[in-house]
Amino acid sequence: MAVVGWKNKSSVSVFLIVGLSESEEPQPLLFLMFLCIYLTTAIGNIMILSLISLDRRLHTPMYFFLANLSIIDIIVSSITVPKLLSILLTAQKSILYSECITQLILFQLFAVTECYVLAAMAYDRYVAICFPLNYTLIMSRVVRIRLVIACWAYGLVNSLVQAFSISSLDFCGPNTVDHFFCDVTPLLKLSCSATPFAEAMFFIVVLITGMVPLILILVSYGRIIAEITKISSSRGRFKTFSTCASHFTVVALYYISGLFSYIWPLATYAMDKDVKVVAVLYTILTPMLNPIIYSLRNREVVQALKKALRIK
Predict the structure, then answer these.
(1) Is residue 308 a contact partner of residue 56, using CB atoms and an 8 Å limit?
(2) Tens digit of pLDDT for each residue in 99-158?
(3) Is the peptide bond before 174 cis (omega within 30 degrees of 0)?
(4) The model's pTM
(5) I want to staple 98 with a disulfide (CB 3.0 to 4.6 A). Which of 2, 82, 174, 259 is the partner?
(6) What is the C-alpha separation between 312 and 301, in angstroms, rounded?
(7) 11: closest CA among 195, 190, 270?
(8) 123: Cβ–Cβ under 8 A, 6 or more apart, which residues?
């Protein structure tokens, strides 16, 4: 559904989304592949949400943040994948200006919120390992809720800033978005008006919304590693760090692919096939992999799943 109220001052009322390739023919094999990925993403994250809701052992701060991450992953996939599936199945690549801006707003909101939720999860692991006796006191219900509200607030501010900077530009043609969804960088490339302000805002917001949570994550893990080195036995060190392994894997996948997708186009001002492939990783594949990673690497989730399936 398009956001009501966005007015297009330019002559372009419809954009054409290139998709993953410039093919003008339907691509049924790719359609089936991405449909399977989308369904796996939805089923996997709904499973995580169901287990956390039903199993009281998972009513802890870490799984509270994981539930928020699963919600975000479902929505992020639902923002980008359905339009891509439509392009692959029908080869109809048109999208209304208002729908394009809506997709940009929603994607920026949830993608940045995920960055800060990952930072909150890193802080949670830091408190659990470095202050185990005071963990429940520090990570109280009120603190958890405030952290999540802050994460969503940062995402909302980012999306509104990006939407304002893009909607203030004129689009006179060409109208072909060289990506598989509407995002800031390919739209900046299409604008026929001066873009220094929009580019500056985009660069500042990328630094703030991308690098600040990354710095918080690195600081948290730096202190975690420092604490782990104090453990005398190698088995104890491995067991302690294993509690962070799932989160660390998710952070690495999301940030490496996400930073490449934004910093590279920002430097070259062009979208190439490599950037699109990496964008697929953090917008489509990572939401699918997150529940798999947490299920395979987390004993509590595996036990909750076995209990739900009545497997001894």
Answers:
(1) no
(2) 999 999 999 999 999 999 999 999 999 999 889 889 989 999 999 999 999 999 999 988
(3) yes
(4) 0.87
(5) 2
(6) 14
(7) 190
(8) 147, 216, 220
